[in-house]
């Protein structure tokens, strides 16, 4: 199984992710994003474009993040080694006016005083670096167990390569919610250690 890296960031998707990850509303987000744009830290934040032009210089931009201490610098170095860099996927929309929302300048987020601006900058940078990464790769196991006339099913996932999920932590995860399952052969028998029926209400 692959978990695809995200497509480049347009305004509506930035608003959704800021609400989900940062718990900030659309108005506060756009105020912070426009201030970052005026400081030359990110590109114009009002755009429908989800496609980078072929002439966009990704490598120099990623290289500039290598000078930043911490996760941005570490991940940028990893991205530029072992053929890890991938050209971003193309989304459907293009307003022909502005590029997708992306960082314009590499700065240490701790130097950005306003917390909203700092968090929005971190989100834009993480999303951009994730766009330039490889898809995450995992193995999924599906287990079906029959007990008398009842059938139970569980899915388990083993992540082999995190890739873009590494930089998008802690916001993006990949899980079936049931952890890793044991490797068993079709037709195997087992004895349950416990049988619990859970009762719950909303």
Key words describing this protein structure:
single chain; 202 residues; alpha+beta; 3-stranded antiparallel sheet; 6 helices; elongated
- From the N-terminal CA to the C-terminal CA, the straight-line distance is 33 Å
Provide the structure class: alpha+beta
Major pleated sheet:
3 strands, antiparallel
By DSSP, the count of extended strands is: 3
Question: What Rg, in angstroms, do the CA atoms define?
Answer: 21 Å
Count helical runs: 6
Strand order of the largest sheet: 1-2-3
The helix content is 25-40%
Helix and strand run: EHHHHHEEH
Mean pLDDT: 93
Strand content: 5-15%
* Shape category: elongated
Low-confidence stretches: none
Task: Describe, in short, the structure shown.
The protein has 202 residues and is of the alpha+beta class. The protein has helices spanning 11-22, 26-38, 58-65, 71-79, 115-131, 164-167, and strands at 2-3, 136-147, 150-161. The protein has a three-stranded antiparallel β-sheet, with no helix packed on it.
How would you describe what is shown here?
With 202 residues, the protein is of the alpha+beta class. 31% of the residues lie in helices and 13% in strands. The mean pLDDT is 93.
């Amino acid at each position: 199984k692959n978990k695809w890296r995200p497509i480049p960031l347009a305004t509506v998707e930035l608003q959704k992710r800021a609400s989900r990850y940062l718990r900030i509303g659309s108005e506060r987000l756009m105020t912070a994003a426009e201030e970052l744009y005026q400081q030359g830290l990110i590109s114009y934040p009002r755009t429908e474009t989800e496609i980078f032009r072929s002439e966009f210089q990704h490598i120099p931009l990623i290289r500039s993040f290598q000078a930043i201490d911490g996760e941005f610098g570490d991940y940028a170095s990893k991205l530029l080694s072992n053929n890890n860099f991938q050209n971003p996927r193309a989304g459907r929309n293009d307003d022909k006016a502005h590029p997708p929302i992306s960082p314009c300048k590499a700065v240490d987020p701790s130097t950005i005083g306003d917390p909203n601006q700092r968090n929005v900058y971190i989100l834009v940078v993480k999303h951009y670096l994730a766009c330039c990464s490889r898809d995450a790769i995992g193995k999924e196991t599906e287990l079906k167990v029959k007990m008398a006339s009842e059938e139970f099913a569980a899915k388990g996932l083993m992540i082999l390569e995190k890739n873009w999920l590494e930089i998008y932590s802690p916001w993006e995860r990949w899980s079936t919610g049931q952890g890793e399952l044991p490797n068993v052969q079709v037709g195997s028998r087992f004895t349950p250690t416990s049988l619990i029926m859970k009762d719950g209400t909303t």
